Amino acid sequence: EPEVTQTPSHQVTQMGQEVILRCVPISNHLYFYWYRQILGQKVEFLVSFYNNEISEKSEIFDDQFSVERPDGSNFTLKIRSTKLEDSAMYFCASGQGQGLNEQFFGPGTRLTVL
Amino acid sequence: AQSVTQPDIHITVSEGASLELRCNYSYGATPYLFWYVQSPGQGLQLLLKYFSGDTLVQGIKGFEAEFKRSQSSFNLRKPSVHWSDAAEYFCAVLKNQAGTALIFGKGTTLSVSS
């Protein structure tokens, strides 16, 4: 069964460093998403991406964040200058459409900023 | 603003007993509602969803949920819990019907005792 994969499973970085979190969505999906979950808090929507552009983003997704689909298979989230409060589990998801179409989630990347 | 509340942080149920996980939502129009489950080390998996019609929806793994507009609730139920149901359960609402952003509750951790 096809699944969303994410690498790495755990990333440790120093404050101020840039990180790139990688995701391989399910191959025939057209919509791509990033969510995050700070420990003990809700899963929060960051951004959705369709047709090579951002279709929706939250207030969290500021200029420090960017997304890219550099080739036909990968979907990346870049954080330019990490802060302590960026420490969280980051989930990638993909889906065939918007609205009621199911979003298929990856297992997450745990980002720790020291 | 749209929001989801899961009042129970942690629930313990005996194997074979029935289960009800509570979810309350705040949404102006007819909500699109979802229940996801997350097992350790796994991504979020969709259990079921509701958008209109029959207020009792059936999902995978023997789960069902009932939409009650008068109570702004979408509680998840299972008649007989199995040890493999131990996981974290998330209720979510789509931020807007044509959109992509899911708004999640904080989640309920289910433990199953033998």
Would you spell out the secondary-structure blueprint of this structure?
The complex is a heterodimer of chains A (114) and B (114).
Chain A: E1 5-7, E2 10-13, E3 19-24, E4 31-37, E5 43-50, E6 53-57, E7 65-68, E8 75-79, E9 88-95, E10 104-105, E11 109-113
Parallel strand pairs in A: 2-11
Antiparallel strand pairs in A: 1-3, 3-8, 4-5, 4-9, 5-6, 7-8, 9-10, 9-11
Chain B: E1 3-5, E2 10-14, E3 19-21, E4 24-26, E5 33-38, E6 44-50, E7 56-58, E8 64-68, E9 73-78, E10 87-94, E11 102-104, E12 108-113
Q: What are the salient characteristics of this protein?
A:
heterodimer; A: 114 residues; mainly beta; seven-stranded mixed beta sheet; four-stranded antiparallel beta sheet; 0% helix; B: 114 residues; six-stranded mixed beta sheet; globular
Compact summary:
Chain A is mainly β and 114 residues long. Helices cover 0% and strands 50% of the residues of chain A. Chain A contains no helices and eleven strands.
